[in-house]
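Module 6 notes. Inverse folding takes a fixed backbone as the condition and produces residue identities as the prediction. Think of it as a translation problem where the source language is geometry and the target language is the twenty amino acids. Below is one complete input and output pair. Work through it position by position during the lab.
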């Protein structure tokens, strides 16, 4: 489960539906049940009983097994600024806006330590892990890494657009949906990770911030059109 966005502090929310008899509809009620850390934090990822929050260069590991009493149990600093977090099992994949990708062992949440890294030109904005591959969005475009050996990530391919940098991505099946500044969407066939090929592109004429895909639909978040 991944939640992204600019937040001043980590909020742990409980969501439940209430019946509304007036219009025979359900209304959504959200309330804050606890707070932890003072922020600012700009990214968060939940895996198991832990939340991993990025604020500045600090990766905070928070035990949320009791949502009413979250506790920070460990932290780790990357060189500059955390832009995205993706956690699989005992490894946290953290992108830095300047240095690229850092792979951090979090098997002991109180003592996280880096086990591998990949330096990309001008860092990376977003990361998604699928199997033995890491997909990075950055100034050079979509970067695909082989992470079967986490201590030594290997670049397999780079797919970019001249004059644009990739700011967000979502991988679903054999396709990567990549957003580029300012208003550009590319769909890439990544069935061959060493040679991804474009199958579609479009300019939306409005700034795109994030993307999500299913088998049949593509969801885009933009600044002016919802």
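Target side of the pair, the amino acids:
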């Amino acid at each position: 489960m991944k939640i992204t966005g600019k937040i001043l502090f980590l909020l742990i929310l409980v969501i439940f539906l209430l019946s509304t008899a007036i219009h025979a509809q359900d209304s959504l009620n959200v309330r804050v049940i606890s707070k932890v850390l003072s922020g600012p934090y700009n990214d968060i990822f939940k895996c198991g009983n832990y939340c991993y929050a990025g604020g500045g260069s600090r990766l905070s590991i928070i035990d949320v097994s009791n949502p009413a009493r979250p506790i920070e149990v460990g932290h780790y600093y990357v060189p500059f600024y955390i832009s995205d977090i993706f956690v699989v099992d005992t490894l946290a994949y953290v992108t830095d806006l300047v240095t690229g990708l850092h792979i951090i062992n979090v098997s002991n949440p109180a003592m996280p330590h880096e086990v591998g890294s990949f330096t990309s030109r001008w860092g990376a904005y977003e990361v998604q892990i699928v199997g033995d591959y890491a997909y990075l969005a950055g100034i050079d475009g979509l970067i695909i890494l082989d992470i079967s050996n986490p201590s030594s990530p290997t670049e397999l391919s780079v797919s970019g657009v001249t004059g644009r940098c990739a700011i967000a991505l979502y991988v679903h099946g054999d396709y990567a949906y990549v957003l580029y500044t300012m208003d550009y969407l590319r769909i890439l066939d990544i069935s061959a990770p060493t040679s991804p090929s474009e199958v579609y592109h479009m300019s939306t004429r409005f700034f795109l911030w994030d993307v999500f895909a299913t088998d049949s639909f593509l969801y885009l978040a933009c600044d002016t059109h919802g």
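Reference fact for the lab report: The two ends are 22 Å apart (CA to CA).
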